[in-house]
Design goal:
Oligomer: single chain
Structural class: mainly beta
CATH architecture: Alpha-Beta Complex
Order of helices and strands: EEEEEHEEHEEEEEEH
Protein name: Molybdopterin-dependent oxidoreductase
Radius of gyration: 16 Å
Organism: Streptomyces achmelvichensis
CATH superfamily: Oxidoreductase, molybdopterin-binding domain
Strand content: 25-35%
CATH topology: Sulfite Oxidase, Chain A, domain 2
Number of domains: 1
Largest sheet: 6 strands, mixed
Helix content: under 10%
CATH class: Alpha Beta
Number of helices: 3
């Protein structure tokens, strides 16, 4: 059963902003998780990109912080119908992490500390569309929001932005993740209102 924080109340969209269908604007940052929050020390955190042939590319915390950083400001859209505008992050583009990875994969299965998974087409992680982020709003990312690091894929519903990311498995075939196996839409475009299977 998902863990949901209080504070789910609708607001009108900000002036000049357009909401995806069925969404309302929020000014807080609701916390939703598929299970308990894992607490992963930076000293033991590691991110792996695993190619389809099993080759692993890994970064510990210090190595991640040495990579070129970006500071995307993006809108978030949760499948539970809240949207939050102009969120500020700091992290590493997936273009940087994948630039030296040889792959013929078309898909990615993202794994989190705690066992959560979500699947995406690989193209949705490239061309400036996705980051591994470790700061939110000028502060280290809190564990309840996915710290020490999470995936950020803001053009899809937020369940695709896996918290507590530990591995990105590159695949030739598409394997549904946790919520996708439970009936959520396989892709999750908020502008198409792709919340559940069949939408």
């Amino acid at each position: 059963m998902p863990i949901i924080s209080p504070g789910f109340h609708g607001r009108r969209p900000a002036d000049g902003k357009k909401l995806p269908p069925g969404q309302y604007e929020t000014f807080d940052f609701p916390v939703l998780s598929a299970g308990p929050t894992p607490h992963v020390p930076q000293e033991t955190w590691e991110l792996a990109v695993i190619a389809e042939d099993g080759r692993r590319h890994t970064w510990d915390w210090a190595a991640l912080l040495k990579l070129p950083m970006e500071t995307p400001t993006v809108d978030l859209h949760c499948v539970t119908k809240w949207s939050k505008y102009d969120t500020e992050w700091r992290g590493v583009s997936l273009d940087v992490l994948l630039e030296d990875v040889e792959t013929a994969a078309d898909f990615a299965l993202v794994h989190s500390y705690g066992g959560y998974t979500t699947n995406l087409p690989l193209e949705d992680l490239l061309d400036g569309k996705a980051w591994i982020v470790h700061d939110y709003d000028g502060q280290e990312l809190a564990p309840e929001h996915g710290g020490p690091a999470r995936l950020l894929v803001p053009h899809l519903y937020l369940w695709k932005s896996a918290k507590w990311v530990r591995a990105i498995e590159l695949r030739l075939d598409d394997e549904p993740g946790f919520w996708e196996s439970a009936g959520y839409h396989n892709y999750g475009d908020p502008w198409q209102e792709q919340r559940y299977r069949g939408d």
